[in-house]
């Protein structure tokens, strides 16, 4: 199997996905609070940009998945 296929297979394993989701929820929530605190807890009506918030959760997910795949490949 090619390196790309092995990497994608590992990236979509249930264990990898769950670990990345946990990281994304914790880190994404912290980053969302830091970056959008005024929108959520201010006195004005919130103008929440869902695209920015989704990226706030997506980036930690991708970084965690990449780290797991890279770590798995370097062990072999």
Oligomer: single chain
Report the portion of residues in β strands.
under 5%
Distance between the termini: 14 Å
SS class: mainly alpha
Q: Extract low-pLDDT stretches.
A: none
Rg, nearest Å: 16 Å
Instruction: Give the overall silhouette.
Output: elongated
Number of helices: 3
Task: Give the beta-strand count.
Answer: 0
Describe the protein in words.
- The chain is mostly helical and 76 residues long.
- The protein has one domain (3-75).
- 83% of the residues lie in helices and 0% in strands.
- It contains 3 helices and no strands.
- The chain has helices at residues 3-11, 14-41, 50-75.
- Helix 1 packs across helix 3 (50-75).
- The longest helix is centred in the middle third of the chain and has 28 residues, at 14-41.
- It is elongated.
- The model has no long low-confidence stretch (mean pLDDT 87).
Task: Write a concise keyword list for the protein shown above.
76 residues, mainly alpha, 3 helices
Quick structural summary:
This protein is mainly α. It has helices spanning about 5-10, 15-40, 50-75. The chain has one domain (about 5-75).
Itemize the secondary structure elements and their pairings.
Elements: H1 3-11, H2 14-41, H3 50-75
